[in-house]
Design a protein that fits this description.
The chain has 448 residues and is an alpha/beta fold. Helices cover 37% and strands 21% of the residues. The structure holds ligand BES, manganese (II) ion and zinc ion.
Amino acid sequence: IAADLVSELGDDFQAALDDQEFEGKVGQVAKYRAVGPGGSRKIVVVGLCDDPQEDTVRVASGDLGRACMKSTDVATDLAMFGPTAAVVEGFTMAQYRFDGYKSEPKPALTETLTMIGADEGVIARGEVLAAATMRARDLINTPPIDQSPSDLATLCEELGVETGMRVVVRDEAELVEGRFGGLLGVAAGSSRPPRLVEMWHEPDGADGFVALVGKGITFDSGGLSLKPASSMETMKTDMSGAAVVISVMEAVARLDLPIKVVGITALTDNMPGGLATKPGDVLRTRNGKTIEVLNTDAEGRLVLADGLALATEFEPDFIVDIATLTGGAVVALGEKIAAVIGDDDLAAEVIEVGGGTGERFWQLPLPDEYRKLIDSPIADMKNTAGRSGSALTAALLLAEFVGDVPWIHLDIAGPASWPDDEGYQCKGGSGFSTRTLIELLATKATSG
Ligand code: BES
Ligand code: MN
Ligand code: ZN
């Protein structure tokens, strides 16, 4: 394509590409101003490499979106090289800004994106996928002072009204009544009350039934096992799993996927207030199993225990939980790859779908022989087993709450927050897993 432009625009254009050392590698961007009789236009050339994969096109579209932040009208031929939806997603997600707290916001100015060679039928789908990811990013980036568990529950109710989903919210009294001892135990140290939310997408003639469960810690101070200040700085993001579940549910409803889905979110702060759960306390969870809390900073598994137990009661075909669960997952896989643990077939599917969406997952094992590491002398299990294999021992605890229902656990502690601006990713809350889960549900809906 650059070659076509060279023949049209001439040597000057080629010289500009050379000056900017543009070779066509992914991530490379070159700019040129073409002056003609009709006025002047900015031309942006983005690298695609030879034979680009789906996500390469999405990344290049992100590079374009970033380079065109100040252009109101943009035209691109990127859809000739990959799926149209990927171009829409990449361009849109790259122009994401979270600047509502700036006194001088600098929003993207692009109003229209004209796509040459596009498949018109899938544009709306790309828009829904990008919007869902950006909704998750907004929820993750919002400061906790402005987003309590009850605020998130209210948002879920509003989304229910807008999209036709049935939404069930349990407040503190109802959680006591329902014996959600894990969630209540984590919430005990906070002055803001917890919530547990079910969002139901129940289309007529649905084929299949899936439950999603999200960890929604609206702030993780560690509780009485207080985190050091530097580790606490980013802990507003500890509700990323819930943000993903809420955003996926909204998208599933808007796309009206022909599959039944329930999205459960367990929402609470983890704070060291006067009534906080203490190391040595034992909590009785929704399914009756007891957990000795030795480290109040291992709180995610306590709220997920109740969420998973509830999901299991609904008897879905399978359960996926999504959580910023362990530092161990970050040590193992870094900041851009998530861990998937549990049912081997489901894990393989998530990894496969993630190859298309550009969200990378890698499977870690669920070793039976490590189960004894979470044995407690006084309760059914304890909530910590030390540092080695902590992502695995956390998952082994979760496995106690899904009965015989096929289940996978996504530990997104690393990629839930993206470390830098690149392609369509923006520094801060990423919404990682949102698009993969929507695509997974879409696949399940059509394959029965
Ligand atoms: N929310 C954290 C895990 C986390 C770490 C998320 C880094 C994002 C980035 C979780 O609640 C936690 O504190 N886990 C501890 C448990 C430990 C104290 C047993 C961990 O994995 O270090
Ligand atoms: Mn914690
Ligand atoms: Zn946490």
